[in-house]
Amino acid sequence: MKNNNTLILGIGNSLLSDEGAGIQALDYLREHYPELTDVALLDGGTLSFTLLPYIEDAASLIVVDAAELGAAPGTTEVFQGDAMDRFAGRPRRSVHEVSLADLLAISHLTGTLPHNRALVAVQPQQTDWGSQLSGPVAAALPRVARHVVDLTRQWADAVKTARPGSTPMPAALGSG
To answer: What are the b/e assignments for 10-26, b being 16+ CB within 10 Å?
Structure first.
């Protein structure tokens, strides 16, 4: 049964410098936004199928990760709903055991994919061995956190004004 929480899932490898941006963003949110309510912050590491129950139980999902955006290091971008599904499903190299697309597809197939879902992505500068974020990615953390907070508030406001049963079902993954 779904709870009313928004799952904020930080993913990445904190031993590969900017690849750990999702994990570092969770720490930033804990420190700078302790007033966030109805959210669960979860370190998803390098992803695994063990994350499925958390996604299935969440009313809303925000994933924070470093991603190749083809932009300047530290650039952030938000992909919501079907745009998130398409971005996560595109071919790319990944250090993750399973891909985000795999988790989203399984959640979709089981009918548990949250309608409100977004990927907050930040362009890495480097993904070599190292435990520190590069300057541009570290400087982007406040923007990443702001995107997360804005999404949680936008979705909370929508729930307050929505009529019961008015939430549309998500489109099939990979369509469009």
So the answer is: bbbbbebbbbbbbbbbb
Q: Tokens 């470093």 label which residue?
A: 66
Closest C-alpha among 40, 5, 7, 19 to residue 134: 19
- Domains of the chain (ranges plus CATH)? 6-161 (3.40.50.1450)
- 137 within 8 A of 47, measured Cβ to Cβ: no
* DSSP secondary structure string for all residues of 120-172: EEE--S--SSBSS--HHHHHHHHHHHHHHHHHHHHHHHHHHHPPTT-PPPPPP
Whether 168 and 115 have beta carbons less than 8 Å apart is answered as yes
pLDDT, tens digit, 9 for 90 and up, residues 76-125: 999 999 999 999 887 654 445 467 888 888 899 999 999 999 999 999 99
